[in-house]
Design brief:
7-stranded mixed sheet, 32% strand, fatty acid metabolism, 447 residues, alpha/beta, lipid metabolism, binds Palmitoyl-CoA, 16% helix, Acyl-CoA thioesterase 1, Thio_Ohase/BAAT_N
Length: 447
C-alpha cells in the first residue's frame, strides 16, 4: 500500500474582479502521502516521499517508525512546510528541524533512533521485511497534531529472484545468496565482527547486485565454538574452497568483505590463503585483536591491551580508541599483508572510536608498497564512525562491546555517517565488479 486518505478541509480564496469580496470555497481535499516505489522496495533503495492535498504553506510533521525483531521501536520525525500548492516533496523541500534538518529525502530512515539506549538496528531474518510506517501530522508538534495521512511500506532484504541457500558443508556454517539465474556469478565471502552469529542482511542485499555472496559464521553459531579463542585460518580456507568450487560461482578467485573483526579476519585470509582476488575491509585492524590467528605452524598473537588508556567520555561511555598497543611496537601482531596478491579497498570512518582504522589502512598501504605490491585504494569518510553498514541503517554511535564488557563509543555523526554508508555501498560494488570481472550494473547514488 503506497498512499492513504485523510484530511481536514483546506480553505482556498479565489479573488474575483476588483471591487467584489473574495469568494471563499471550502475544498474537501484529501491529504495523501505517496511513496515511490509504492508498497515495497529493497532496504538499500532510495524512496521518493511526497505529500499532496495540504493547504498552501501548511505546517506539518512527518513521522516514521519501525519495530525490529526484538520489539524495539526506531523512530524519526521532521517538521516541514507545504509549498504554495499544498504539496511537499522530500526531494525538494528542506526539513525545518526534528531528527534532521535540510534537504534529506531519506532522513526519515537513516535518522531513526531506538527507544532503547545502545540498541543497534539489526535484521535477523532476511526473509521478512522491516515494515516502516509513515504519517503526516498537522502542525509542528511531533506528538500533538491531527493525523492527516498515513502509509505503510515494506523494506525488503531479498531482491526478487535472489535465492537463499543455507550451507552446512564439512565444518562450514554459512548462508549463500545467489542472484536470479543464470550464473555463474562473481563470488564474495561476507564477515561480520565481534558478537559472532550469522548476520545475513548485507550478503542478501549484495546478491541483489549480481554477486554470489556467502555470509560466513565463525563463532557463536550452530556447532561452531561459542567464544573467539584462536581463529584457525583452516576453517576460512574450507569456506574459500567451498565457494570457489561452487558451480554457480565464477572463478578463478573470489572476493572478501569484512567489517571490524571481520575486516581483520579478511586481511588474515588474504595474507595466508590462496584464491582471494579482491578484499574490501571496512574499519578493520591490521593487528590481531583479542585472540590469536593461526595457520598451519604459524601464529599471530594479539596486540597488548593498554587498560590504562581507556578514557571516559563526557556521556559516561568508555572510549577504547587508544587502548590497543600499536602493531608497529607489537610487531608480531602485524598480519603479514605483504604476502598477499589481493587487490584491497579500505573503507575508513575517520571518527572510528573502536580502533585506529585510518592508521591501520595507511600502515597496510606502506607495507604493501614497500614489498612491491599494488597500492591499495583507501577511502576515508570524515565524521563517520565504526559501524559503516549498508545505506539507511541508522548510526549506532555507542553500545555494548563484548570484548570490553561495557558500553563504548563507536564514533560518528548521523548525517556524515549516513552519507558515508551510501558512498561506501556504491564504492564496494564498483570495486568488486571491476576486480572480479563482472559487468558493472547501474546503481544510482541518491540519499
Ligand atoms: C576495561 C577493559 C578495557 C579493555 C579494552 C579493550 C580494547 C578493545 C579494543 C576494541 C576491540 C575491538 C574488536 C573488534 C571490534 C568489532 O568487531 S565491533 C563489532 C562488530 N559487530 C558486528 O559486526 C556484529 C556481530 N554480531 C552480533 O553482534 C550478533 O550477531 C548479534 C547481532 C548481537 C546477535 O547475536 P545473538 O547471539 O543472536 O544475540 P542475542 O543472543 O539475541 O544477544 C546477545 C547479546 O547481544 C545483545 N544484542 C542483541 N541484539 C542487539 C542489538 N540489536 N543491539 C544491541 N545489542 C544487542 C543482547 O542484549 C545480548 O546481550 P546480553 O543480554 O547477553 O548482555
Amino acid at each position: 500500500m503506497g498512499l492513504q486518505r485523510v484530511v481536514p478541509p483546506a480553505t482556498t480564496n479565489y479573488s474575483r474582479s476588483p471591487g467584489h469580496p473574495p469568494l471563499t470555497v471550502q475544498l474537501e481535499m484529501e491529504a495523501t502521502l505517496s511513496l515511490e516505489p509504492s508498497g515495497r522496495s529493497c532496504w538499500d533503495e532510495p524512496l521518493s516521499i511526497a505529500v499532496r492535498g495540504l493547504a498552501p504553506e501548511q505546517p506539518v510533521t512527518l513521522r516514521s517508525v519501525l519495530r525490529d525483531e526484538k520489539g524495539t521501536l526506531f523512530r524519526a520525525h521532521a517538521r516541514y512546510r507545504a509549498d504554495n500548492h499544498g504539496e511537499l516533496d522530500l526531494a525538494r523541500t528542506p526539513a525545518l528541524g526534528g531528527s534532521f534538518s535540510g534537504l534529506e529525502p531519506m532522513g526519515l530512515l537513516w535518522a531513526m533512533e531506538p527507544d532503547r539506549p545502545f540498541w543497534r538496528l539489526v535484521k535477523r531474518d532476511v526473509q521478512t521485511p522491516f515494515v516502516v510506517e509513515l504519517e503526516v501530522l498537522d502542525g509542528h508538534e511531533p506528538d500533538g497534531g491531527q493525523r492527516l495521512a498515513h502509509a505503510v511500506h515494506e523494506r525488503h532484504f531479498l531482491a526478487p529472484g535472489v535465492r537463499r541457500v543455507p550451507v552446512r558443508e564439512g565444518r562450514v556454517r554459512a548462508t549463500l545468496f545467489l542472484p536470479p539465474e543464470p550464473g555463474p556469478f562473481p563470488g564474495i565471502i561476507d564477515l561480520f565482527g565481534v558478537g559472532g552469529g550469522l548476520l545475513e542482511y548485507r550478503a542478501s542485499l549484495l546478491a541483489g547486485k549480481g554477486f554470489a555472496v556467502m555470509a560466513l559464521a565463525y563463532y557463536n553459531y550452530d556447532d561452531l565454538p561459542k567464544n573467539m579463542e584462536t581463529m584457525h585460518m583452516e576453517y576460512f580456507e574450507e569456506a574459500v574452497n567451498y565457494l570457489r568450487s561452487h558451480p554457480e560461482v565464477k572463478g578463478p578467485g573470489i572476493g572478501l568483505l569484512g567489517i571490524s573483526k571481520g575486516g581483520e579476519l579478511g586481511l588474515a585470509m588474504a595474507s595466508f590463503l590462496k584464491g582471494i582476488t579482491a578484499a574490501v575491509v571496512i574499519n578493520g585492524s591490521v593487528a590481531a585483536v583479542g585472540n590469536t590467528i593461526s595457520y598451519k605452524d604459524e601464529t599471530i598473537p594479539p596486540v597488548t591491551i593498554l587498560r590504562n588508556q581507556v578514557k571516559m567520555t563526557k556521556d559516561g561511555l568508555k572510549d577504547v580508541v587508544d587502548a590497543l598497543q600499536s602493531p608497529l611496537v607489537d610487531k608480531k601482531s602485524f598480519i603479514p599483508v605483504e604476502r598477499s596478491d589481493t587487490a584491497f579497498l579500505f573503507l575508513v570512518g575517520q571518527d572510528d572510536h573502536n580502533w585506529k582504522s585510518e592508521f591501520y589502512a595507511d600502515e597496510i598501504s606502506k607495507r604493501l608498497q614497500a614489498h612491491g605490491k599494488e597500492k591499495p585504494q583507501i577511502i576515508c569518510y570524515p565524521a563517520a564512525g565504526h559501524y559503516i553498514e549498508p545505506p539507511y541503517f541508522p548510526l549506532c554511535s555507542a553500545g555494548m562491546h563484548l570484548l570490553v564488557g561495557a558500553n563504548i563509543t563507536f564514533g560518528g555523526e548521523p548525517k556524515p555517517h549516513a552519507m558515508a554508508q551510501l558512498d561506501a555501498w556504491q564504492q564496494l560494488q564498483t570495486f568488486f565488479h571491476k576486480q572480479l570481472g563482472s559487468e558493472c550494473l547501474h546503481v544510482s547514488p541518491k540519499i
